[in-house]
Structure formats: structure tokens, C-alpha cells
Amino acid sequence: MEKSLMLALTVSLVAAVSCGRVVTKAQLNVTLEKQVAGLWVRVPCVEELGSCHYRDACDILSQLIPPGQDCPEPLHSYGLPCRCPFKAGSYSLPQSDFFLPVLDLPDWLTNGNYRVQGVAGSGGKELGCVKVALSLHSD
Q1: Are 105 and 5 in contact (CB under 8 A)?
Q2: Could you tell me the domains of the chain?
Q3: pLDDT value, residue 17
Q4: Helix, strand or coil for residue 46?
Q5: Where are the beta strands (DSSP E) in the chain?
Q6: Full-prediction pTM beyond 0.90?
Q7: With 60 as the cut, is the pLDDT of residue 10 above it?
Q8: Strands 4-19, 39-42: parallel, antiparallel or unpaired by DSSP?
Q9: Is 106 in contact with 47 (CB distance < 8 Å)?
Q10: Residue 115: beta bridge partners?
Q11: DSSP E strand boundaries for 3-58
Q12: Nearest-angstrom CA–CA distance, 59 and 106
């Protein structure tokens, strides 16, 4: 039986996104890798976490950050969107720290360095890509 860990997390990341047109609905393919003994190992999709395919990324974002709610910092300070629709253009975020509330995470997704790549698409066409490097550390 897999147990879950309750962690308070600090996430440091750098991200860049490029959209060729307005995005109102998109599929998302995520590749998650964890650094293990100096090597990057692909994390499989387990219970919708890891290297997964999501049919409606916009719906997921709306659940995480409901419409009408401000985008979390530092996205808000940099004027970056956090939910659909995303206007056409390029978005970048300098290295930033995100302080997340206590989260219920599986024990296999714990402290360490991670790389995440998300490719959004619609109608068989790639709309944009985000690459994130992050470190998870519990208090």
C-alpha cells in the first residue's frame, strides 16, 4: 500500500512559453523527469501525476485557479496568465520561488530536482511548449 506524504514545498523554477494563437482549449502532454544519482529518470504516469497526457489542460487550470481568482505570485506581478484563454505570444518567467501550501503527495514524488516539459496542442497542431526546472524541498 502506497502512503502519502504531507509536505510544505518551495518550488524554484524558470519557465518560457510560446503560443502561436489564442488558446481556449488544449490537450497537454507532460514529461516529468527526476534527477537520481546524477541521471535524469522519466517518471511514469501514476494516478494523473508524472509523465501523463491530459485531454483538457484549460479545465485543469480552472480547477486549480478558479476564474475570478488572481493568479498566484509571482505570475501576478509579472502580468503572466495562469488560465485559458492564453493570448498568442511568448511568455517568460525569471527564476522564481513559489511557496506552496501543504500538499498531499505520494511518497515517490518527494524532495529532489525535477525537469518538466509540457507540450500543448489542439486539432493535431502544437500550440506551445513550457519547460520547467524545479526543486521540491519539504520543511
Answers
A1: yes
A2: 9-138 (2.70.220.10)
A3: 57
A4: strand
A5: 4-19, 27-36, 39-42, 53-54, 89-106, 112-122, 125-138
A6: no
A7: no
A8: unpaired
A9: yes
A10: 33, 133
A11: 4-19, 27-36, 39-42, 53-54
A12: 23
